[in-house]
Write a structure and sequence with these properties.
It is a single chain. About 30% of the residues are buried. The longest helix is centred in the N-terminal third of the chain and has 38 residues, at about 20-55. The two termini are about 45 Å apart. The protein is an alpha+beta fold. Helix 15 packs antiparallel against helix 17. Among the domains are: about 20-195, Topoisomerase I, Chain A, domain 4; about 215-315, no CATH class; about 350-430, RNA polymerase II/Efflux pump adaptor protein, barrel-sandwich hybrid domain (OB fold (Dihydrolipoamide Acetyltransferase, E2P)); about 450-480 and about 890-975, no CATH class; about 515-590 and about 740-770 and about 775-855, no CATH class; about 595-735, no CATH class. The strands form 18 sheets. Strands 26, 27, 28, 29, 30, 46, 47, 49, 50, 51 and 53 form an 11-stranded antiparallel beta sheet that branches. The protein is built from 25 helices and 70 strands. Its EC number is 2.7.7.6. It holds the Pfam family RNA_pol_Rpb1_5. Its cofactor is Zn(2+). One of its GO terms (biological process) is DNA-templated transcription. Keywords: Chloroplast, DNA-directed RNA polymerase, Metal-binding, Nucleotidyltransferase, Plastid, Transcription, Transferase, Zinc.
Length: about 1250
């Protein structure tokens, strides 16, 4: 007897939170339908509003309670961080390990504080408004509550790396300035993230809609025999079984029929399944859109329920668009985070096992294990086998713990441990990859480099650069001292180890001039800068005067005339070639109005084409006057366009024109032009054979033929107004520019017979182009004359300066330009200056003294300020004239009293000590450094700083080198274990749907078989697969590759063998290569596609579920089916297809069957995985593809191929403007097609049976498009 699957009624008597309310509404919806559910929802809303109003819950600052344990926790955590820093300072851990440990410490503290907040609210204040709000689902979440009353925690910088300085405050306490700046980093990243996410999610939805818009429920039942077992579904939970139909009858364990085929799986049926005492997941077969054999659609039975009303989907439902929207809409809820923390939290990848009690730990010491260093710098054992631990306390209580194989054991047998101490780390099941990263180590003090226990080898990179790396773990020491870069010691005999008394000279550097000349000291007292005048030029026929406005004027006498120039540059200014010193005060070329300037009498149309001004300019300017007035803020014009006005007419309010003429108004530019001249109207008789182009007319020539003759040079401008032609005869002013030089500059050079390294010349400059319109009403200078500097390139390193030398007799100045060689003594002193050194300068010249080249002008002497020791001397590679020295001062040495005790035997001169190293039986070293001196009662230590480096570190310094504070010592090269799901959320979904190539791919098994790992002598590995049919396959791998199997494990085809990401393209290729050896081509394609489809659906669903988003499998199945429905032709056989052609798999399967039946050669093809963009562009409808992307290419190809669009989808019908074949439009089209199909079938019955394969293909094409 079959069980009854009716309605379910359940009684709820518990706290209704957000999830419970959701379940309650879902049950109401299932049992009572949409109308009653709406009424229930409305009543629940009124009920909650009523009590919320009565309760009067509101949040005040007092409700934000900070846990009492926070201060204590921050203190403990800070101590732990300080201990980690001390371990780093003494060279116990590397900088990477310190960073990782610090981040993990704060992360654990943050999580502990979060638990404390929850415990406090739950146990002490359950009615706290904040707690009620966050945990009822009204607003807020645990993360926000933690930031309000716990601590804000760790933030990431703009590059995505975690800042190891956490925000210890919360928003209740308030952030200090530093915390606020760090906080704003993370907050801004969140805002940008949201903005980008919205755009990306929208574009993803568009692509999904495009790929699935033609999937419509067109059939009742496709009649397929294919199905999916529950085990094969991506989501094996009841949520995704609900609404599906059984593909086969389901029998109980006793063989009794429970449900026939095509039974709908509802809530009651699922409840029945849960009570079964056998595993039904292999025997229960369901229908799926993946297995539907309907062409370009899904049938009702394969799709199942329409999830919005829990009933079988209607015919004509556009399920493709529903699927696209269901996947695209939650995109904004996904993160776009790409994790890059400089190392992942170990807590994310490992599960920590802590001791529940204090006591002694014991385990089997013969367990197979290898030494291992954790990412926190702890030494532990990686156990090869599972291990059983016993922890016994002082009371005799024993607790046993089981540690699985491949775990990290962090304690020794018989070791005393305390409560809550980490005993082991168990690696979580995650797809991991080892990624190489680099981090520079910088010196934190100046000093001398010393390598301790480093095995160095030289390597060459691909570019041929040589670099050094160390092969083992060791220390780089920086032995402290003050670093100086000084000139070579002139005559001083100093060696390393020399004792330096106060004022001992370290270097003497002479300052020598390059060119001969006269000394000029800028500051007689400090003598900070010495200038040597090497060359000068004085203008004999010029003096500089000062007018009543205190402006300096150059008076230049040339012939019998005196010309005045404005001085444009101040005295003692630096000059360069082309600088203008003076401007001639001259109004010869100044106009009274704005206007147009021309260089020749050619027509404007011809002259504007010529580019060279030199060839165009003939020594004359031709000026056509016109005034331009600009209106501001829509001020009304006082004149009209076309008016003829007199001088003094008001143009704009309180603006009067000094000239008369024709008014032209430009409304767009808000300009008024006044053009002087006479206006003549031209009649039809006078314009026959008359040149109507704008042009100049010479005196004596006709302006209007046989009527008006020009008395002077004029410009004709032709105008058209109200259908009549007019000519405006405009006056022209001619300015002559003489070619001969009328100004002469007499110059005296010093030294007299030297080359003219600098001189002054007269230059005339024109600032306007030919036929340039100057929009003004004030007048402009068409040409100006300047005094210009001209320097030669022979002594370019010398500085030219303008000098004014005062005349004692009169209040005038002489004009001179001099070339100076500058020697900056201050810079030399600054190079050598340091608080520990004394720099003194001795001068050997006086102001005004003449000196020859290579004269010793001064000497900079550097001496020590106090008694010290010279530790080291190195000649720099960059400049042999300089030496690097290291001086030891009293601050670099520390004395340790021995208090009469005897030193241990291994403490000797030169030994390197770390903090805590035993010196005697009772005394430990309080400093890190080198033993510098041993006396009877004390020890002198030279301070040092050790840096631990790991194997493979790139070294940038040599042992014995001298370094400054902040110099790069080495680059740590370290492997970080990361999850392969570094790209998460929306980018991950996009990567899967677009079927992109992935990095860090895993190695996939080419066939099923037993796997074994073998290592070669050169440390490379080989994975050997012994196939079920006896075939042996060897796959080489790199030495550091992590495998995912144990020797002897059985793997299936395309199973991952190593850590990494699975490339869907590679998976499909391997599956097809394997299956085509075992099955027919059609079956191999079908099995390959099915396997890949299930993989893709699982990966997409995993990404959404990790973000708390639930999507029904059937939506993803529809999209994935579109991505895996094409094949690529490799060999056409006897068909008309071309190699490389992409076709539908269903069509190719039908063609292959037809070819085999006729005994002809079927085409060869391989399955193809297309991303949603490619799938859209390869759509059967070229109208749909062209409206998506690459419109020109798609339409061109469609036109060349003569393709037809059968308008099956929604999009192409919308574009054409037809009724869409979905919803109410579905029935109309179906009736039309049914009539056509009946006619076709009648015609086909009378056709001959003797058809070729080509004709069969054409028939199939016609039928498949209906």
């Amino acid at each position: 007897m079959q069980p009854e699957f009716g309605k379910i009624h359940s009684f709820k008597n518990s706290l209704i939170n957000k999830r419970s309310l959701k379940d309650l509404m879902y049950q109401a919806f299932l049992n009572y339908g949409i109308v009653k559910s709406s009424i229930i929802a409305d009543r629940v809303k009124n009920l909650t509003f009523h009590y919320a109003t009565k309760s009067g819950i509101s949040i005040s600052v007092e409700d934000l309670h900070v846990p009492y344990k926070k201060r204590e926790l921050i203190g403990l955590t800070s101590n732990e961080v300080e201990i980690t820093k001390k371990r780093y300072d003494v060279g116990g851990i590397t900088s990477v390990e310190r960073f990782q440990k610090t981040i993990d410490i704060w992360n654990n503290a943050n999580n502990f504080l979060k638990d404390e907040v929850l415990t406090y609210f739950r146990e002490s204040d359950p009615l706290n408004p904040l707690y009620i709000m966050a945990f009822s689902g009204a607003r807020g979440n645990i993360s926000q509550v933690r930031q309000l009353v716990g601590m804000r925690g760790l933030m990431s910088n703009p590059q995505g790396q975690i800042i190891d300085l956490p925000i210890q405050s919360n928003f209740r306490e308030g952030l200090n300035v530093t915390e606020y700046i760090i906080s704003s980093y993370g907050a801004r990243k969140g805002l940008v993230d949201t903005a980008l996410r919205t755009a990306d999610s929208g574009y993803l939805t568009r692509r999904l809609v495009d790929v699935a818009q033609d999937i419509i429920v067109r059939e009742e039942d496709c009649g397929t025999r294919e199905s999916l077992a529950v085990n094969e579904l991506a989501s094996k939970d009841s949520l995704n079984l609900k609404g599906r139909l059984l593909a086969e009858p389901f029998f109980s364990k006793s063989g009794e029929l429970v449900a026939p085929a095509n039974t709908e799986i509802n809530e009651n049926f699922l409840t029945y399944l849960k009570k079964l005492d056998f595993d039904y997941k292999d025997t229960l077969k369901v229908r799926s859109p993946l297995t539907c054999s309907a062409i370009r659609s899904v049938c009702r039975n394969c799709y199942g329920w329409h999830l919005s009303h829990s009933k079988l989907v209607d015919l004509g439902e556009a399920v493709g668009i529903v699927a696209a929207q269901s996947i695209g809409e939650p995109g904004t809820q996904l993160t776009m985070r790409t994790f890059h923390t400089g190392g992942v939290f170990s807590g994310d990848l490992t599960k920590q096992v802590r001791s529940p009690i204090s006591g002694k730990v014991q385990f089997n010491e013969n367990t197979r294990a290898s030494l291992f260093r954790t990412m926190h710098g702890k030494i532990g054992f990686r156990v090869k086998d599972a291990i059983h631990l016993l922890v016994t306390n002082s009371n005799g209580t024993t607790i046993s713990l089981d540690i699985p194989e491949e775990s990290l054991l962090l304690v020794n047998s018989k070791q005393e441990i305390y409560e809550n101490e980490i005993i082991a780390e168990i690696q979580k099941e995650a797809n991991l990859i080892l990624e190489e990263e680099q981090k520079e180590i910088y010196s934190e003090a100046s000093g001398e480099v010393f390598f301790n226990n480093l095995d160095i080898e030289t390597q060459t990179d691909r570019q041929g650069n040589i670099y050094k790396t160390n092969k083992n773990s060791g220390l780089i020491w920086i032995l402290q001292g003050s670093f100086y870069n000084l000139p070579s010691f002139n005559g001083t005999k100093l060696k390393p180890g020399s004792e330096l008394s106060k004022n001992t000279f370290l270097s003497r550097q002479g300052i020598v001039n390059r060119y001969a000349g006269q000394i000029k000291l800028h500051n007689q007292h400090s003598k900070s800068k010495i200038c040597i005048r090497n060359f000068s030029v004085t203008i004999e026929n010029a003096i500089v005067e000062q007018n009543h406005k205190k402006e300096k004027i150059i008076k230049l006498a040339s012939g019998e005339q005196i010309f005045s120039f404005d001085l444009m540059i101040q005295a003692n200014s630096l000059l360069k070639t082309g600088d203008m010193i003076g401007r001639l005060i001259d109004n010869t070329y100044r106009t009274n109005t704005g206007g147009i300037v021309a260089y020749s009498l050619e027509k404007p149309q011809i002259a504007k084409r010529k580019k060279s001004v030199k060839n165009l300019f003939n020594g004359y300017f031709y000026w056509i006057p016109e005034n331009t007035y600009k209106a501001v803020r829509n001020i009304p014009f006082k004149v009209k366009n076309g008016d003829i006005i007199l001088p003094g007419t008001e143009i704009l309010p309180n603006v009067f024109s000094p000239i008369g003429g024709l008014v032209q108004i430009n409304e767009v530019e808000q300009e008024v032009l006044v053009k002087p001249g006479e206006l003549f109207k031209l009649n039809e008789g006078s314009i026959k054979n008359f040149d109507q182009s704008n042009r100049f007319v010479q005196p004596g020539d006709f302006i209007i033929p046989n009527k008006i003759i020009a008395q002077r040079l004029v410009f004709l401008e032709f105008l058209e107004r109200l259908g009549n032609l007019y000519v405006l005869v405009r006056p022209v002013t001619v300015y002559s520019v003489p070619r001969e030089k009328y100004l002469e500059v007499k110059q005296t050079f010093l030294p007299i017979k030297s080359k003219e390294h600098v001189k002054l010349k007269i230059v005339k400059r024109v600032f306007y182009k030919n036929w340039e319109k100057i929009a003004s009403n004030q007048g402009v200078n068409l040409l100006q004359t300047f005094l210009v500097v001209d320097t030669s390139s022979e002594r370019s390193e010398l500085e030219p300066r303008l000098e004014l030398e005062e005349n004692i007799i009169s209040d005038t100045w002489s004009l001179r330009i001099s070339l100076y060689e500058n020697l900056k003594i201050e810079e030399q002193k600054r190079k050598n200056s340091n608080s520990d050194l004394v720099t003194n300068v001795r001068y050997f010249v006086a102001d005004g003294q003449y000196i020859s080249a290579q004269t010793l002008i001064a000497q900079v002497e550097t001496a020590v300020h106090c008694s010290s020791t010279l530790a080291s001397i190195n000649t720099t590679l960059a400049n042999e004239n300089f030496k690097e020295i290291l001086i030891l001062q009293s601050t670099d040495l520390k004395k340790i009293s021995l208090e009469g005790q005897t030193l241990l035997p291994d403490i000797s001169l030169g030994k390197l000590l770390r903090i805590g190293t035993p010196l005697t039986d009772l005394i430990k070293s309080p400093y890190s450094g080198q033993v510098f001196q041993i006396e009877n009662n004390y020890l002198l230590i030279r301070l040092g700083r050790p840096y631990l480096i790991s194997a493979g570190t790139i070294l940038h310094v040599n042992s014995g080198a001298l370094v400054k504070d902040g110099d790069i010592l080495a680059t740590l090269v370290y492997g970080t274990i990361k999850t392969t799901d570094i790209v998460q959320g929306l980018p991950k979904v996009e990567e899967l749907l677009e079927a992109r190539k992935v990095n860090h791919t895993t190695l996939l098994a080419p066939c099923p078989g037993y796997t074994y790992l073998r290592m070669n002598k050169n440390q490379t590995g080989i994975i050997r697969i012994v196939g079920v049919d006896g075939e042996i396959i060897n796959l080489p791998i790199a030495s550091n590759t992590k495998v995912k199997f144990r020797n002897g494990d059985f793997v299936n085809v395309a199973d991952p063998l190593t850590d990494g990401l699975i490339s869907p393209h590679t998976k499909l290729e391997i599956l097809f290569t394997y299956y085509k050896k075992k099955f027919t081509l059609v079956e191999a394609c079908r099995l390959s596609f099915k396997n890949l489809q299930l993989f893709l659906i699982g990966e997409i669903q995993k990404t959404y579920r990790s973000q708390g988003v639930d999507i029904a499998d059937k939506h993803v199945e529809i999209i994935v089916k579109q991505m895996t429905s094409k094949v690529c032709i490799e060999d056409s056989g006897t068909t008309t297809f071309l190699p490389g052609e992409v076709l539908n798999f269903q069509k190719m399967a039908a063609i292959t069957t037809a070819a085999n039946q006729k005994g002809e050669i079927a085409p060869l093809y391989s399955p193809l995985l297309l991303g949603i963009t490619k799938a859209s562009l390869n759509s059967d409808s070229f109208i749909s593809a062209a409206s998506f992307q690459e419109t020109t290419r798609v339409l061109t190809e469609a036109a060349i191929e003569g393709r037809k669009d059968w308008l099956n989808g929604l999009k192409e019908n919308v574009i054409i403007g037809r009724l869409i074949p979905a919803g109410t439009g579905f029935n109309y089209f179906e009736n039309q097609k049914m009539l056509e199909r009946e006619n076709q079938e009648v015609n086909l019955m009378f056709q001959k049976e003797t058809k070729t394969i080509t004709e069969n293909i054409l028939d199939l094409r016609i039928l498949s498009t209906d």
